Amino acid sequence: MGNKTFAIIKPDAVKAGNTGKIYDRIIQAGFDILAAQLLRLSEEQAKGFYAVHHERPFFGDLIEFMTSGPCMVLALQKDNAVESWRKTIGATNPQDAEDNTIRKDFASNVQENAVHGSDSDENAQKEIAFFFSDSELPSN
Ligand code: UDP
Ligand code: MG
Question: What is the per-residue pLDDT for 89?
């Protein structure tokens, strides 16, 4: 099991001023923040990042949302990071998310759902590499 995952504090949460509160949740859940950057995704970056969803009916709206304002991209470290972060953020649709999860507490709806989390170790590696070069990540 890998010890890294990739997270995004999405534009809705940054815009609402929830970045600090979500950082607290990250720390409280025992993650180390290896790298973080505030940036605004280009359309090309958003389409590349979410390429797996390009046939889905919500794809166009998702790209519009993800490019609508700044977001925070993060590389996180913890034992069993992927599964632990998915548990910390909760279900995609906040209506289905458990109490005390980030999405339950900060998401507006199934699209504007505050945060991203990788779904496998393989995708975590790919997603971290999509935004951060090796020299931007601590080596141990
Ligand atoms: N999404 C959406 N409508 C849907 C399903 C997903 O707008 O019906 C958006 C939402 O922002 C979600 C992202 O697309 O976080 C990626 O979807 P995925 O199924 O991978 O959910 P996640 O892994 O983020 O929980
Ligand atoms: Mg996903």
Answer: 98
Residue numbers of the domain that contains 94? 4-42+70-134
- Tally of domains within the chain: 1
122 located within any domain: yes
**56 in a structural domain:** no
Residue nearest to atom 9 of ligand 1 (CA): 111
Q: How far apart are CA 138 and CA 15, in angstroms?
A: 29
The catalytic position among 116, 124, 127, 132 is 116
Contact 75, 62 (CB under 8 A): no
What digits encode the pLDDT tens for the residues 31-60?
Answer: 999 999 999 999 999 999 999 999 999 999
Taking residues 109-136, report their average pLDDT: 98
Protein residues with C-beta less than 5 angstroms from the ion ligand 2:
119
Task: Decide if 54 is catalytic.
Answer: no
Ligand 1 shell residues, CB under 6 Å: 53, 58, 62, 92, 110-111, 113, 116, 119
54 found inside a domain: no
The stretches of the chain forming alpha helices (DSSP H) are 11-15, 19-28, 43-49, 59-66, 81-89, 102-106, 121-131
| pTM of the shown model | 0.98
